[in-house]
Amino acid sequence: MLRQGLSMPCERGFTQAEGLRDQAEGLRRLLLRASLRVVTVVGARAGLGATSVVVNLAAALARAGKQVLVLDENLAHDNVANALALKPRYDLLNAVRDAMPWRDILLHTATGVHVLPLARAMQALPGLSGTERERLLESLTAASWGMDVVLVDATTDGHSVCASLSGDEPLLLVLNATADGITEGYALLKQMAAHNGRQAFDLVVNKARNEQEARTVFDNMAQVAQRHMQVSLKYLGHIPLDENLNRAAQQRRPLVEMLPDAPASCAFIELARKLMLLPAAKKDGSNALNQLLQRLLQQKPVLTKRKTAQSVAQLVR
Questions:
Q1: Would you tell me which of 12, 121, 154, 244 could form a disulfide with 163, CB atoms 3.0–4.6 Å apart?
Q2: Chain centroid, CA 128 distance in Å
Q3: Spans of all domains in the chain
């Protein structure tokens, strides 16, 4: 039975309770028939809401009974682990270089979301030896065993290894509905299209006053991206301005758990539903995570200090 609180925006003609139940059940059915999904979430910089999106998507999916693993690529204080008051002590790099068991690195929330800090491991990737990369892959494979969804909170410095290696799997850009947010989002799109060869992005507009504003922001961005970069964007909705998000952040809890019927909570659940509807990228019968891990393994080790100092985006493109 679905737990209470899995809410989504209501359709006209339904009562709020009926709409929430119907939409939550729809998400549950989608999840039950979905295989492992890997979704990378990225923002142009810290403070634009990408980590909040990851935290609340993870909570929504966990409430639907799914096993969720979050790969936390951010070193910043406001990363996923700290946003959930998990106080990380180690990084996956400790498993790679210090032979620490990956289970001692993996963090867990009270609601069953698993968080794996790997920012330092991704930063060190260009200089890892072949043996160290094998250990990295073995740890990631073991940590993801039995998971239904893997969410990646990509680093916000524009040099995300995980985003660079996302291939055909969903890459969700969080775009703020402000002049600066639009400018920064466009710059990130341009950088990723040039460095990573990515030609398609999913997009959610954050802190929009209403659907009309979000649609206007998206339409303008999509037209410019198509005209100047031949990049296509897909609209996955918007997260409304909601003062409850600040309250949840102060308590280091997902809003979806704290106030499941809040406007932003409804939007996060709807976003989760849409993400589950996106076509899965499968090749030769392997799942999305296996494809990402193979791309990780195929990155050429860097043999000189000079190359190690280059940006990660340049090294893994």
A1: 154
A2: 25
A3: 38-316
